[in-house]
Structures are given as structure tokens and as C-alpha cells.
Amino acid sequence: MPNCSTLTIDLKAIQDNIHQLVTHFGHVMVMVKGNAYGTDSLIVSKYLQKNVCKGVVFLGVAHVSEGIQLRKAGIHLPIFVIGAPPFEAELIVKYQLTPSVSTKQEIEALNDASKKQDSTTPIHLHLCTGMNRFGVSLNEAHIIYETIQQASHLHLEGIMTHFVAAESDFFDAVSQRQIEAFKTFVNSLVSPPRWVHAANSAASVRFQLPFCNLVRIGLGIYGYGVCLPGARPALQLTATICSVNECPQGATVGYQCNYTFQKSQGRVGVLSIGYHDGIPRHLANKGYVLIHGKKAPMIGNICMDFTMIDLTDIPEARVGDEVCLFGSSLSPEEMALWAQTDVRELLTRISPRVQRVWTNYKPNLEHDYERLSIPERLPSSLLPFEKD
Questions:
Q1: Taking the complete model, does pTM exceed 0.85, yes or no?
Q2: What are the Cα distances from residue 44, in Å, to 48, 173, 195, 357?
Q3: Catalytic choice (46, 94, 224, 255)
Q4: What is the pLDDT of residue 2?
């Protein structure tokens, strides 16, 4: 029996968006963290590995566990990891992940694990220019840089920083200070590493960073946020009307009686999707959905499994009809605005109960990956290499 709520992902739109980014910037790291922004990190990664042009040089994740999941699914592209604590060093080396580092403890743990496993691990030095989440301070950056150079089983492959608010012109002065600080450090190096990266989706479009040669794109591959002209929206969220109720004037709708019909006769549609599925509870009595090309307001408190809409002015709406919560005609960014949240949070909270439907691609997750040794799983370009 089909699911009553569906997230449709257009992989051709994603591919076209990435191709545009690669054409414009040259080299791209596609961020597939957070289950590829609420879609499916395994399917998106496999699709990119098989179909997208060579400009995609990294997949990016937040946690080591995400990288391991991709390796076990047969992904052999380089996988960059933002958060790589010392206690996960052996796993990083075992699964040939590329971590960002910013402390002596991380460097020592990775070097020891690499030596123990007789390998050399590529790493990226993370410089803090204002985010204060990860990264070494500007005052200690050269000390950490020298520590890396002295590590016998590590290879400094990249250097990075992270913008605080690149999408907002209100913070452009902050962004410019970050750019100058990062640029100054990079220029101070006699021999910068292979990859220099700072820009996320918004920064790649809004700022000129000629001293960088890699951009990190997450939200942008789906055609949302600050994008290049011509980017195509890739996602659509739909649900089904599972019940229709007639309500007299004065009748209330939903928990805590949060909506009251003022009209003489109201008509309530019940959608097969609720806050467990990722619909923010803050949408109570805000926003609308589209049915038969018409706007149906959301009314009453959002329930765990259901959402009510006002069908009074859409008499043709029936049980079983499909309703669009966001898509090509109604952006998820607009829904996020109604809910006073960020579109990234909205997308990544779409639960597994919502069926994923893939257009322009037939997913096949079957593989013989577990029977292969690590070197057999990876192309020769990723095998251990000599220390520079």
C-alpha cells in the first residue's frame, strides 16, 4: 500500500544544479550530511558517484558515522568529515575518511592510528575566523600547521574555514573580516595545500574568493537558498486528504480549540502528515497548501500525524486527493518563513515515514561491498601514499 505522504526528489535537477556549479567554480564538495538534507544520503551519494561530472571531488558529512555508512554502501569518492574527535581516529583511518583538524590531540590521535594501520591519512586544517565551533585560532594556527608537518603519517591535503552568515548582507562586514583573516593565513604559507576552501552555497555565489579552489555546496544542489541563476528546485512534498468533515459555525478544530469557524458552514480536510513527519507545529493557523491549484489554509494545531486544512472554498476537494505542501509552485523556504525557522531545519526534519520517490533515476542499493577489503573498495587514487 503506498504511503500517504511523499517527498519527491528530482535527481536530474540535482545533477543539472551541480553541473552548473562545477562549470562555474571548477571543483565542488557536495555536502550530504543530515541524510543529504532530508532526502537520502546513500542514494544521493551513489547517484553522484555514478552520474555527475568529475568536478565533484568530495562528499561532505558532519560525523564519522555518516562517512562510515557511505563507505559501507560502496561509496569510494573522497569523504570529508567536519567533526572528527580524537576518540574516532582509528575509525577515520580504517574507513579512509578525510577529517578536518584543529587541535594537537586530534593530530596526535590520527597520526598514531595511521602509524598503527600502516597508512597515511589526508587531513584538512580547520581555521577559526569567527564561527567558534571548530577550528584553531589565528594566534595558534601556525603552531598547529607545524605540528601537522611534523606528523609522519599525516598529509596536509587542505585548509578551510567556515562562514558565520554568508547568506545575509547584514553580516557582510563580518564575512569580509573572515575572508581577510583566512586569506592572510593562506598567503603566509610557503606552500599551501592542494585544496583551499571556505565558501558554502551562499558564499560561493555572493563572494569572490580567487584564492580558494573548492566550494562546499549543500542546500544549493537542491535549488534553494542563494543559488546561481537558473538553479532548479528539486524537491516536492505532498500528502493525501484522508478525511473531510463538515463543521457548523462556531465549531473548533484540533487540539486546544485553536481555530474556530466563523462561517455558517465550514469544511475541514485532514492531511496524512503531521509534526512527526516534519511539519512544524509553529504552522498552526499559518500558511497554506495547494490543492487543485488553489490555496487551502492550514487551520488548528498541527497534530503528530495529521494536519487540518480549510476546504470550505474548494468544494471539489475529495478524500484521496493529493495536496502539495511545497514544490515548484510553493517553495519550502516560504513554509520555513511561516514557521519562523530555517529551510535547512525544515528539510532535515522530514521523517523516514514520509516515502521518498526518485524521479529520473531508479535507485539500486544492492552491492557486494561488505565482501571486499578496504583497498578493493577504493580507487587507486585513494590508496595510501608516500608522505611528502
A1: yes
A2: 6, 35, 24, 12
A3: 255
A4: 55
Amino acid symbol at 90:
E
Last residue of a domain, one of 154, 187, 222: 222
The number of beta carbons lying within 10 Å of the beta carbon of residue 146 is: 10
Report whether 316 contacts 292 (CB < 8 A): yes
Asked whether the beta carbons of 120 and 155 are under 8 A apart, the reply is yes
Annotated active-site residue 12? The verdict is: no
Q: Do residue 134 and residue 265 come from a single domain? A: no
Give every CB contact of residue 65 below 8 A, 6+ residues apart in sequence: none
Q: From the candidates 33, 47, 145, 222, which is the catalytic residue?
A: 33
Q: What is the pLDDT of residue 52?
A: 64
Q: Give residue 308's domain range.
A: 235-353
- Does 33 participate in catalysis according to the annotation? yes
* 66/89 same-domain check: yes
Q: Are residues 153 and 282 in the same domain?
A: no
Rounded Cα distance between 265 and 51, Å, is 54
136: phi then psi, degrees, rounded to nearest 5: -85, 145
Residue 333 lies in a domain: yes
Residue of 245, 275, 253 lying closest to 341 (CA atoms)? 275
Closest CA to 289 of 253, 238, 244: 238
Whether 162 and 201 have beta carbons less than 8 Å apart is answered as no
Q: Is 357 exposed, middle or buried (0-12, 13-18, 19+ CB in 10 A)?
A: middle
What CATH number is associated with residue 139?
A: 3.20.20.10
Q: From CA 52, how far away is CA 360, in angstroms rounded? A: 13
pLDDT of residue 387: 39
Ranges of residues in the chain whose predicted pLDDT is under 50: 1, 365-388
Strands (E), 102-253: 121-126, 154-160, 195-197, 215-217, 235-248, 252-253
As for how many domains the chain has, the answer is 2
Interacting residues of 236 by C-beta distance below 8 A, sequence separation 6+:
7, 8, 10, 324, 326, 327, 328
301 assigned to some structural domain: yes
